[in-house]
Design a protein that fits this description.
single chain; about 350 residues; alpha/beta; TIM Barrel; eight-stranded parallel β-barrel; two-stranded antiparallel ribbon; globular
Amino acid sequence: MQITEKKPGIEIGIYTLGDLGPDPQTGKTISIQQRLQEVLAAGKLADEAGLDIFGVGEHHRLDYAVSSPAVTLAAVAQHTKQIKLTSATTVLSTIDPVRLFEDFATLDLLSNGRAEIIAGRGAFVESFPLFGYDLNDYNELFEENMQLLQQLNASEIVNWQGTFRSSLQNAMIAPRPAQEKLPLWIGVGGTPESAARAGRLGTGMALAILGGDPKRFKPLVDLYRQAGLEAGHANDALKVAVTGHTFIAKTSQQAKDEFYPYYAGYWEYVNKQRGMGTKISVSDFERMASPETGLFVGSPQQIIEKILQQHELFGHQRFMAQMDIGGLPFSKVAEGIEMLATEVAPVVRRETAK
């Protein structure tokens, strides 16, 4: 049974990828064990502060702490009461959908009906050779696994045949979740094909807006809703989430001054992972954090204004902030969570409930 109370207006939450970058102020990188403890602490704090959703990403490399969102979220579930728990995202192309469904159904039972899955193709591809998949099947694997995951979600007994895994004949899919069905979302970075697929399949769409002009994502939202309606899905079933990098401080200048070294450091090591050596200058960062962009850096009032401007543009049902990147000390992350929950969320909920 679902116990999470529905608040008016859009849902507000946070997510983490558990990246393990050096703190640019000290040059030190915390241990994976400490990072995981901080992930648990963030989830607990978000729940106590009254946020709606907590997400955990998936990577399979030594510079990220989380390779198993379901295990991590099961730990978070034991320290929380109300907050919804989601992967953000599950790399669906390289995981067995049956195993994934059973893990999250178990999480749903342990959390009294709070589990969700955001599935994506993955911006990083190390899981393909790790689990024996061919990168040339990148798109086809995702499509097939998503359709199977939806079938598993709908039926206790499944008959299924596909290309990439063994067939299922009268297979019992157990356990069943506490909710009637697990809420399923597809994570979309910027491709029209992904947006159209999410609409066609009738899942939610979690849109990653990490910067730039948010208006460039409006065609994706329109395409998603159009594809969903054409496939026969009800309009209220087609839910949009916006996700993005966020840093909140008392003033805009304080936010930019404090966040710049961490943001620049984060992109420096992410770009190195991708074979690029670019570094963000202070002037570049000033432009990236300007009021008309999708980078949520500023005072609580500025964050409110950005969320509401995007809500006017997209009509989305959920906003999720990534607040712990680039080796940022947990004390700063905790301050940000508190401000998001106590100063930003009440205003955004009130305004979007109108």
